[in-house]
Predict the 3D structure of the following.
Amino acid sequence: MGALNLNTMKRVCKKCGVEKEIEEFVKNKACPFERERTCKECRNKRERARDNISEKHKEYYKLNKDHIKISNKKRYELNKESISLSRRTKEYRAKAKIWKRKEYIKNKERIDNRNKVYALENKDKISKHAQEYWENNKVMLHAKQKLQNQKNRDELRDTYVKDQIRRVFSIPTKTIYEYPDLIENYRQQIKVKRLLKTKKDESNETS
């Protein structure tokens, strides 16, 4: 780990080994002291090198698109069972989720910019795809949303509690998120109300 001099607020870059001002390191809450271990200069060099490699891959793919597709299809057909089984396992999905999260944190700025550019350049395409998906999966999506809403209600998830606060007290969503204790306090109130209702129902049944 890069050494941090608390007195002068400097840090040694793990890549170039040079001690630099703390501001020369990108902020990252996932890292110790909320700063990347690699300085901005080294990080930018790495990003440029990665972009160059990415461009080479794109060029190679364009020149060999058909061959790559055929090769991938053959490999999938030969290993179809094992690939399908491995992707269905909880362990695989959990590892994939963790890996994706780490990659996003590491490359947040680049990924966000790439997604924004793609969204702007393909606005009509994305909108059309979303509409088609909705039309083709209406029943499934409605059932899925209904099940999700029931889970939110039963487990008193933040989404459900927030909606209840907004509906009962007419408090804007933005204000609710500014006061996280508000959600937790109201969650406890709902729990008490539900408990009292259960006791009352049990009492009525026995009487």
Notes: Residues 180-206 form the longest helix (27 residues). The longest strand covers residues 35-39. Residues 95 and 165 are 36 Å apart (CA to CA).
